[in-house]
Specification:
single chain; 470 residues; alpha+beta; Immunoglobulin-like; Neutral Protease, domain 2; 4 domains; 8-stranded mixed β-sheet; 23 strands; binds arginine; binds zinc ion
C-alpha cells in the first residue's frame, strides 16, 4: 500500500491497519501471555516462555534459628515477544509484592507457577525489571529418583542445591538450563555464620544489627540449577592455583581434618583440567563440604561444588571440577542432554586416572564391557540399561547409563578418531560452546565436523541404541 493512500484514511482506521500490519510481521504491539513452561521432554513446566533473563540480583536474609528466609529478587530480562503476562517458577514461600518496571503488578499462583501481569504490556525486545519480595520457610523437594533437592536445612544452617528443579524453592526465576544469566547473590545471616555462594565474594559487611552481609557475584552466565547458597559455621580457606585462579573452600568444622588431604589436590586438578579441556572457564574455583548426612550426592554448583561430607574422594572432586567445563560452561539445552554433563565428567575421571598412574580409559572401557568393574551399579541400573541420550523418564536422568555409557560413548569416539583429534574435539567443544547451551544433536554434528569421521555407528549403537553394545 502506498503512503499517499494511507494518509487519506481516517485516523482510527490507520491505527487499526498499523496494528494489523505489525501483527503480520510478528511485531505485535499488544502482548500475549508467555508460556508457562518450556516443554522440556522431562520437566515440561520448568522454565517459562516469552523472555530470557539477563541478570538476577537476589537479596536473601536467612535466620538459621527459625529457618525463615526473606528475599528480594530483582530480575532483569528481555522480552522475546509482546507480553501481557509472564510466569516465574516458584515453589512454596509467600509472595509479598511484585512490581515490573517500578510499577505494582498483579500476580497469582498455581502450583509452581507465579503469573505476573504488568500494568503495561511489555514489547518484544524490551529489557524489563521485575522485583519480587517473598519469604517464609523454604521447603526441599523430593526428586523423581527419590533424592532431596532445593533448600535443605542442615545442622546449624542450610544448603541450596537445584538439579534439576530445586532452585525454585528459594528464588523465583526462569528455572530451566536453557536460560542462563549472571547473578548477584547477597546473603545476610547472623554474626558468626558464614554464607557462601557462587562466584566471587565482593564484600563482607558486619552490620550493627548483629548480622553479616556477604555479597557474591557470578560474572559468567550460570544455569539456575547451579546456583547455591550455603549458610553455617563453616571454616573458610582461600588460595590460588599455580596459574592464579582464586580458590575458596568452605568446610563444615567436623569434616575439616578428614577432607583436607583431598582438597589440597584441587589446585593441581584445576591446572590439569585447563591443560586437557582448555582454560578453566570461571574466575574462581573451590569446594564446599557439608555436614555429614545432609545430602546423598555431590553437586557441581558453579565455581564451588558441594560435597556430602568427608572423605571427598579424589574421583568425585575431579568429577565436579570437570563439570565446570562440561555442564556449567557448556550447559545442556534440555534435561534429555544430561549425558553431555555426566558422560563427560565421568570420562574426565578416567582421563585423570590415566594421566596419574591409574588404569587407562581403555582398561576402564573394557572392564565395563566385560561386566567386571568395581563401580557399584546395583543401586540404580546397569550401565547398559538404556541409551544415554534417551533416559526412559525423569527419574533416570541421573541414572548409571547417563554416566558410564555416556563416558563409553566418548571412548568409542576416541577409538575411532585417535588421541590427537579426540582431545582437540574435547577442547573445541568446550571453547566453541563456552557459556552457552548445547544439545546431543549439536554434539554429534560437531564431533563429525571437527574430526572428519563418520561416527553414525557410534551414535546408533552407543548413544541411541537400546541393545547392550558389544
Ligand atoms: N550432577 C551430580 C553429579 O553427578 C549428581 C546429582 C544427583 N542428583 C540426583 N537427583 N540423583 O555430580
Ligand atoms: Zn556429575
Amino acid at each position: 500500500m502506498e503512503h499517499r493512500a494511507l494518509s487519506r484514511l481516517a485516523a482510527p482506521a490507520v491505527a487499526a491497519l498499523l496494528a494489523l500490519t505489525t501483527a503480520c510481521t510478528g511485531e505485535t504491539v499488544q502482548g500475549r501471555p508467555g508460556a508457562s513452561g518450556l516443554r522440556d521432554p522431562y520437566f515440561p513446566k520448568a522454565g517459562n516462555g516469552g523472555y530470557q533473563v539477563e541478570h538476577y540480583a537476589l537479596d536473601l536474609d536467612y535466620d538459621p534459628a527459625d529457618g525463615e528466609l526473606h528475599g528480594k529478587a530483582v530480575i532483569t530480562a528481555r522480552a522475546e515477544q509482546g507480553l501481557s503476562s509472564f510466569n516465574l517458577d516458584l515453589s512454596g514461600l509467600k509472595v509479598e509484592s511484585v512490581s515490573v518496571q517500578g510499577e505494582g503488578a498483579r500476580y497469582n499462583r498455581t502450583g509452581n507457577e507465579l503469573t505476573v501481569r504488568p500494568a503495561e504490556d511489555l514489547k518484544k525486545g524490551e529489557v524489563f525489571r521485575t522485583e519480587v519480595e517473598y519469604g517464609g520457610k523454604p521447603k526441599a523437594l523430593v526428586d523423581a529418583d527419590g533424592s532431596k533437592e532445593g533448600w535443605i536445612t542442615t545442622e546449624g544452617g542450610a544448603v541450596a542445591v537445584g538439579e534439576p528443579v530445586g532452585s525454585m524453592t528459594w528464588f523465583p526465576g526462569n528455572h530451566h538450563p536453557s536460560d542462563k544469566a549472571t547473578y548477584d547473590i547477597t546473603l545476610t545471616v547472623p554474626h558468626g555464620y558464614e554464607a557462601v555462594s557462587n562466584g566471587e565474594l565482593r564484600s563482607r559487611t558486619e552490620g550493627a544489627d548483629g548480622r553479616t552481609e556477604f555479597a557474591w557475584q557470578s560474572r559468567e552466565p550460570m544455569a539456575s540449577y547451579l546456583a547455591t547458597a550455603v549458610v553455617g559455621p563453616y571454616k573458610v580457606t582461600t588460595g590460588r592455583t599455580a596459574s592464579g585462579i582464586a580458590l575458596y573452600n568452605a568446610v563444615t568444622p567436623e569434616q575439616a581434618v578428614a577432607s583436607a588431604g583431598e582438597l589440597a589436590r584441587l589446585p593441581e586438578m584445576v591446572e590439569w583440567g585447563s591443560g586437557r579441556f582448555g582454560a578453566y572457564p570461571f574466575g574462581t574455583a573451590g569446594a564446599i563440604v557439608l555436614p555429614a548426612e545432609t545430602l546423598g550426592y555431590a553437586l557441581e554448583t558453579q565455581t564451588k561444588p558441594v560435597f556430602p561430607g568427608a572423605p571427598v574422594e579424589e574421583g568425585l572432586l575431579l568429577h565436579e571440577l570437570a563439570h565446570q567445563w562440561f555442564g556449567n560452561s557448556v550447559s545442556p539445552k534440555s534435561w534429555k542432554d544430561m549425558w553431555l554433563n555426566e558422560g563427560f565428567a565421568t570420562y574426565a575421571e578416567w582421563l585423570w586416572d590415566e594421566d596419574h598412574d591409574g588404569p587407562t580409559a581403555q582398561e576402564r572401557f573394557e572392564a565395563f564391557l566385560a561386566g567386571d568393574t568395581d563401580v557399584d551399579l546395583a543401586a540404580d541400573s546397569d550401565w547398559d540399561a538404556f541409551p544415554p541420550a534417551s533416559p526412559p523418564g525423569p527419574e533416570h536422568i541421573s541414572g548409571n547409563p547417563v554416566y558410564y555409557r555416556g563416558a563409553m560413548v566418548l571412548h568409542r569416539i576416541r577409538q575411532e578418531v585417535g588421541d590427537e583429534k579426540f582431545f582437540a574435539l574435547l577442547r573445541g567443544w568446550a571453547a566453541d560452546h563456552r557459556y552457552g547451551n548445547a544439545s546431543t544433536a549439536d554434539f554429534t554434528a560437531y564431533a563429525q565436523e571437527q574430526t572428519g569421521h563418520d561416527l553414525k555407528k557410534v551414535w546408533d549403537v552407543w548413544l541411541y541404541g537400546k541393545a547392550r553394545p558389544k
